[in-house]
Structure formats: C-alpha cells, structure tokens
Amino acid sequence: MEQSTYATRPIHPVHAALLAGALPLFLGAMIADWAYSRSYQVQWINFAAWLNAGAMVFAGAALLWAVVDFFRGDRRRDRSAALYLLVLIATFVIGFIAALIHAKDAWATMPAGLVLSLITFVLALTSVWLGFASFRSGVGR
C-alpha cells in the first residue's frame, strides 16, 4: 500500500468535544418531543427547548471552528471537508428553526417540533460522522 503524499491532521480535541457534545443534546430534545407527543405533559416541551438550546451552543461553536479550519491556508479543501461544513451548517439552521418552533405555545409545537427535532438529530449524527471521518491522521493506512 502506498502512503498518500498528503495526510490530513487529526481533529483537534476541542473541536471534537464541541462537535460530539451537540449530538446527545439533540437526541434528548428529540426524545423529549416524542414524550410530549405521547403524554401532552407541557414540561416535556420545556425540556426539549432547553436541550435544543444547549445543543445549539455546541453546534454553533463547532460550526465556527469548522469554518475557520476550512478557510485556513494550510488546510486542503476537498469534497469531504466541504460536505462536512455544509451538513454542519444545515444542522445549525434546522436546529435554529426548531428552537423558534419550540418557543411557541406547547400545543403549537406539534408535529413540527418533533419532525424538526428528528431532522436535526439525523443531521447532527451525519455531521459528527463526517467530521470524525474527514479528519483522519493518515497513520496506519
């Protein structure tokens, strides 16, 4: 096997923590929305709104890090890095829309809140997968 001439550097630990930190919060928001759709206990929507807000903090910081890292001069910009950035942007935008939906009255959040939470979680899962897959060190290949 031939070693490639360009080996990407591994993901920075802080970037990894920010990227992975949003995923369980988006999952929690989706589960809280699902619990509200089954029980109609208003507190579940409050949980979902707060979990979504916390996830947006992590996702926003990870997005900022990814944008700076993408446009740095010493980084090679390829399709996987661009796809990672686009999915992370989509995660942030859909998560922001979900936050606006969760700001409504509890009855007005369904079913859009649950659908947006599901879409945001899938996008967050995809961005975590792409983020960790596109920043391999190249060692051991």
From TrEMBL:
InterPro entries: DUF2231_TM. Signal peptide: none annotated. Residues 12-132 form the DUF2231 domain. The chain crosses the membrane at residues 12-35, 47-71, 83-102, 114-135. Keywords: Membrane, Transmembrane, Transmembrane helix. This is DUF2231 domain-containing protein. It comes from Sphingomonas glaciei.
